[in-house]
Amino acid sequence: MTHAPHRGPGPDGRAVLLLAGLADLAVSTAGSALGAVRGLLRRSDAADLARDAECELAARGRLVLDRYASAPPAHLELLARHTLTRRPPAGDDV
Fold it and tell me: 2 or 91: whose pLDDT is higher?
């Protein structure tokens, strides 16, 4: 009696294994996130934390919009502005 070499699960079996692993990861991540939320709700400064989180999210949103919504200033324009700020006033002779 000869045995065929073991090649592992077929495509369907592999998909089932991947989905089971993904489901386990999602459950464990959700469990730890729920534990963190419970810990935050027990804190006496939860309102302050929520306010700080809201401010941080707004700041991040502003950065993202600034990064992607508007075009950056032209390089030569930046150099010209920098030169003007470093130039001494016209009445001062050094």
Answer: 91
Give residue 20's identity as a one-letter amino acid code. Answer: A
- Between CA 21 and CA 93 the distance in angstroms is 75
**CB-side neighbour CA atoms (13 Å) of 19:** 6
**Non-local CB neighbours of 18 within 8 Å, separated by 6+ positions:** none
Question: Of 90, 91, 73, whose CA–CA distance to 82 is shortest?
Answer: 73
Q: How far apart are CA 22 and CA 17, in angstroms?
A: 9
Q: Where are the alpha helices (DSSP H) in the chain?
A: 11-42, 46-69, 75-86
